[in-house]
Amino acid sequence: MSFAGVFNTLLILGTIQGLILSVLLFSTKKNRKPNRFLALIMLLFALASLNLFIYYSPAFKNVPILFFALNFIPLLFVMPIGPLIYFYVRSNFEPDYNLNKNQRWHFTPVIIDIIPQLTAAVFVIGVLTNTIKNNPGSWGMFIDTYNVYADIPRWLSVSFYIWLSIKYLRSVTGVTNSRLKWFRQFLQIFMVFQAIWGIY
After folding, report:
1. Which of 34, 75, 83, 150 sits CB 3.0–4.6 Å from 106 for a disulfide?
2. Is-contact 18 43, C-beta < 8 A?
3. How far is CA 55 from CA 50, 98, 138, 172, in A?
4. 122-128 long-range CB contacts below 8 Å, 24 or more apart?
5. What Rg value do the Cα atoms of the chain yield, rounded?
6. Where are the alpha helices (DSSP H) in the chain?
7. 91 close to 37: Cβ distance less than 8 angstroms
8. Which positions ≥6 away from 145 have C-beta within 8 Å?
């Protein structure tokens, strides 16, 4: 099997595993609030893997209608990951922790993730209503350029919330070292990912 074949196999397996895990975590009654935050994190990674699989799998290259549909279906959500990590960590040490209205603004930057799909929708609607010239080249160039530079606020957001989570862990008292160690390792995994992403 070629490298591309191995890569695609890992992507689809990761997608399936992430979806199953997110369903199990979301439906469990034990430790419900933290598990729901973790379930959402797993779901976002599963959708990202699915997005990569569809784009790189040869099986879908001859299905142009699918690629056209993906212009309007967002599968890549990065901006919510940072806040979800932070709230997941906090909810594990604060049993009564709830998101209030003042904290929901943490998720408003998700608009950064859906601008390409909104742009594609505006273009298609504009062409169909004869309010925009059918010139997809410039619109496609905008979307491609935007996707490159949108990774900057995405990387900064995840990095900021990881730092915030680490800072929060340092303030936690009255819990076992083994429990704190697990969450430190959890955050260290994301730190390694951020380092690789930052180099890229």
Report:
1. 83
2. yes
3. 9, 37, 22, 43
4. 124/72
5. 20
6. 3-27, 32-56, 64-70, 81-93, 111-128, 136-171, 177-199
7. yes
8. none
pTM (predicted TM-score):
0.88
Structure-token pair, residue 87 = 């709230």
Asked whether residue 4 carries a pLDDT value surpassing 70, the answer given is no
Q: How many CB atoms lie within 10 A of CB 84?
A: 22
Tokens 């909810």 sit on residue: 91
Spatial distance between the Cα atoms of 111 and 157, rounded to a whole number of angstroms: 13
Q: Which DSSP category does 130 fall into? A: T
* d(C-alpha 116, C-alpha 122), whole Å: 10
Per-residue CA distances from 189 to 13, 28, 146 (Å):
20, 24, 28
Mention every residue, 6+ apart, whose C-beta is less than 8 A from residue 140. Answer: none
The SS3 call for residue 29 is coil
- Which amino acid would we find at residue 44? L
| Residue whose tokens read 């990674």 | 45
Tokens found for residue 25: 């975590």
